[in-house]
Amino acid sequence: MIGAEGDQLGIMSSEAALALAEEKELDLVKIAPNAVPPVCKIMDYGKFRFEQLKKEKESKKNQKVVEVKEIRMSPSIDTNDFNTKVKNAQKFLKDGNRVKVTVRFRGREMAHTSLGEQLLKQFGADCEELATVAKPAKLEGRNMSMFLSPKNPK
Hints:
Layout: H1 14-23, E1 27-32, E2 39-43, H2 45-61, E3 68-73, H3 79-94, E4 98-104, H4 113-126, E5 131-140, E6 143-150
Parallel strand pairs: 3-4
Antiparallel strand pairs: 1-2, 4-6, 5-6
């Protein structure tokens, strides 16, 4: 066992360790309770807990949450509208987000799902320098969707 000042205390009974901790006005904290004999440390538990929470907050602050942004369009989209949607997707990809591109089919458009597939392939080709196709185009009900993931910077 190591004391608060770093001096070597060795193996002692729990009563003696508790008495020593109370004498120094500190807490006796079990570090490895399953070990034989259990390993304890004399420390200020409140300060220890505060520092642990501080480390956890710091690690959460450094994490980047990846969002999935969705871009919707119809198979009869015009060229300029399509280019605007591509630019928006490229902006999302540069920010490190995944993009879900969805083509919605309404009414008789369901007979021409190949147009939607071509549209999604074109979309993937236009975003090729920034993204890879994570999931290829797949028809689910009246929607056909594809996922793009940002490429790792090298």
